[in-house]
Every structure is written in structure tokens, then in C-alpha cells.
Amino acid sequence: MAYGLVMLLILFSGRVLSEGNDYRIELMIFSQNMSNTEVFEQTESQIQWPAGLTDLSAYNKADTLALADAYAVLSKDPAYRAIMHVAWLQTVAEGALSRPVHIQNPEGTLNGFVRIQRGQTLQLIVDLEYAQRQDFNEALVYRLNESRRIKFNEVHYFDHPKFGVVAKVSPL
């Protein structure tokens, strides 16, 4: 009986350690065509790219997309245009800042990075730019640069008048 209890404790403690470092990050990114009175004049990227930027393709893709139903509904709404829906698995050490993950859509209209900071609280850092053509040669660039305290398994909305990000971070 003591042997079984020891094995159970070993299995449980190994599972806890694994859950503490491995995360599933899911993002839904969309543009929105809502009227607003803000004036946007940015025409060039203003992102300050961090060291260690890693392409999204370097990470294992998540098997399922928890926000797939919400993405399907969003895609059908004429007020929104779906840009990207991705999910990946990433390891983040306790008390550390994760490697920044490069987020870019195939059309090149979305570019930026996402990272997690694990300290006493969990922070999701989103720095993305969405370019929208105005004339034949010029595009306005809209930037969403935000760091927010998040909780596991909750859906968080990062808002900009021209585009938005819905994010969910879950421990594995």
C-alpha cells in the first residue's frame, strides 16, 4: 500500500510540474468596420522587435481550437472580417518572460508578436499591427500594443477601433 501511495504522489507531482510550465495559447484576430472618430496617421511599423523572436511555425500546433465556434460566428458577421485563428503550445518558466512568438498572416496585413510573462501574476503581451490599404500606394497601420493580467482558461478581448484579438491561455 505504501508503494502505491508513493507511486501516486510521484505521478501527481510530475503532472503538477508539467502543468506549471506548458501552456496552450489561442488567438482569434479580426478587423472591424465600425464607425469611430479617432484619427489614425501611422503609415510605418512602430513595433520595437524584441530579441529572440521565434516564428509561430517553430511551435507545436494545438490539436483543437477551443474558440472555433466563436470564430465561425464572427466570420459570418458582416461587421467583422476574420484575419487569423491560431493556437500553439509553449513552455514558459516560472518567473520568466517567454520567447516572443511572431504572428503574421499570409497576406502580410497583420504583423507583430505575442508573449507571456509569468511572475506573481500571468501577463499576456500583445503587440500587433494591422495594415489596411487606403489608396493605391499607401496603407494606414493600426497598432494594438497592450499588456494585460490574465487568468487561465478565461477569454480575454484586446480591443482597437480597427481590429481586435480574442485570446485564451490554458495550462496543459
Backbone shape: globular
Q: Indicate the low-confidence ranges by residue numbers.
A: 1-20
- What is the number of helical segments per DSSP (H or I, 4+ residues)? 2
- Residue-averaged pLDDT: 85
Taken as a percent bin, the fraction of beta residues is 35-45%
**How many extended strands?**
9
Radius of gyration: 19 Å
Order of SSEs? HEEHEEEEEEE
Précis, in short:
By secondary structure, the chain is of the alpha+beta class. 17% of the residues lie in helices and 44% in strands.
Structure overview:
The strands form 2 sheets. A 5-stranded mixed β-sheet has the order 2-4-5-6-7, with no helix packed on it. Strands 3-1-9-8 form a 4-stranded antiparallel β-sheet. With 172 residues, it is of the alpha+beta class. Helix content is 17%, strand content 44%. The protein has helices at 2-21, 68-76, and strands spanning 22-32, 54-55, 80-91, 101-104, 110-118, 122-133, 139-150, 155-159, 163-171. Strand 6 and strand 7 (139-150) form a beta hairpin. The chain is built from 2 helices and 9 strands. Residues 1-20 have low confidence and may be disordered. It starts with a helix and ends with a strand.
